[in-house]
Design a protein that fits this description.
Blueprint: E1 2-7, H1 8-11, H2 15-30, E2 39-44, E3 60-67, H3 72-90, E4 97-104, E5 110-111, E6 114-115
Parallel strand pairs: 1-2, 3-4
Antiparallel strand pairs: 1-3, 5-6
Helix pairs in contact: 2-3
Length: 128
């Protein structure tokens, strides 16, 4: 699951393209299938979004929640691919993007009435 935060006036116009770009990166680097898109956008009023100096109103925070299992190299590749594609496809400067990856053990995920460690029908791998 991905949660994206930004200033409403900057985030709303690019949500669809941003979702497409993020999902392309997840498919390419993690091997996620097309139907595993789970993105949430949180557009904030300017007065509700404080961010570091040296950033523009395009400042965007991307939180990526994953079941644990991907290697350090894979996670770094995902972050770098996202930075590159966001700059190429949306014109978002890397200085205006913050990405965090949060991992949870599969038993800490719940979906379709079971926990992640009980799922035997995942059509993607965690150990990449």
């Amino acid at each position: 699951m991905i949660i994206v935060y930004g200033i409403r006036e900057r985030l709303d116009p690019i949500k669809a393209q941003l979702s497409d770009t993020l999902h392309q990166c997840l498919q390419e680097v993690l091997g996620l299938p097309e139907d595993k898109r789970a993105h949430r956008f949180v557009p904030l009023a300017r007065e509700d979004f404080y961010f570091p100096g040296g950033r523009s109103d395009a400042y965007t925070v991307i939180e990526i929640n994953l079941m644990a299992g991907r290697t350090e190299a894979t996670q770094k590749a995902l972050i770098k691919t996202i930075f590159q594609r966001l700059e190429q496809q949306l014109g978002l400067a890397p200085v205006d993007v913050e990405i965090t990856i949060q991992e949870q053990r599969p038993y800490q995920w719940g979906f379709r009435g079971m926990t992640g460690d009980e799922a035997r029908d995942l059509n993607y791998r965690l150990d990449v």
